[in-house]
Amino acid sequence: MLDDSLAVLRARWYLRNATSLGERVRLWGRPIVRNHGSLVIGQRACLVSGGLPIQLTTERDGKLEIGARTFMNYGCSIIATKLISIGPNCKLGMEVLMMDNDFHQIDPVERGARPASAPIVLEENVWLGARVIVVSGVTIGADSVVAAGSVVTRDIAPRSFAAGQPARVIRSVDD
Ligand SMILES: CC(C)(COP(=O)(O)OP(=O)(O)OC[C@H]1O[C@@H](n2cnc3c(N)ncnc32)[C@H](O)[C@@H]1OP(=O)(O)O)[C@@H](O)C(=O)NCCC(=O)NCCS
User: Fold this and answer.
1) Hey, which end of the chain has fewer CB within 10 Å, N or C?
2) Which of 5, 89, 11 is closest to 48 using CA atoms?
């Protein structure tokens, strides 16, 4: 309980640059926060940032929303240039990576030109295993699970279990 109260205080201090911080957000360790846009963290979200820090970045027009009661483990790196919306009750394993912009182009001549951003949306109660990568423009439906080490390049319907590179739906979470 005491540790919980310290975690609430730690969140208030280390997440002080957030645009909005909900009630009883808890934090362990020190995150790296660069909020140049909008960073909204919902109530009772829980961030474990010991050892390998969590990195939360918003660019000037970028919005990052972390839903109420969502859990984020150490080493997660999230870069919002437009919109990354993580719903309530989600669970992000260690070293999850999400970027809503690819930053470079495949065309060698255009490589230095930044492509358009496309939002990433995690609906509620999504569980991403350790080291999952979600690329720009992807929506992962409510209650879905993505297995560790997967790379999500296409939308995933609600209540799916997906795995692999690229991630493919293997079954429903109800099977
Ligand atoms: C989500 C998870 C627990 C599911 O495991 P599971 O119940 O054993 O999965 P299943 O047995 O239903 O696997 C179904 C298929 O997906 C495959 N699969 C499971 N995990 C996979 C992965 N990470 N990458 C690729 N394929 C995977 C299995 O090989 C199996 O394929 P097969 O039928 O051809 O053999 C597991 O995939 C996982 O990611 N574990 C790590 C969780 C984690 O990162 N925790 C960190 C703290 S949040």
Assistant:
1) N
2) 11
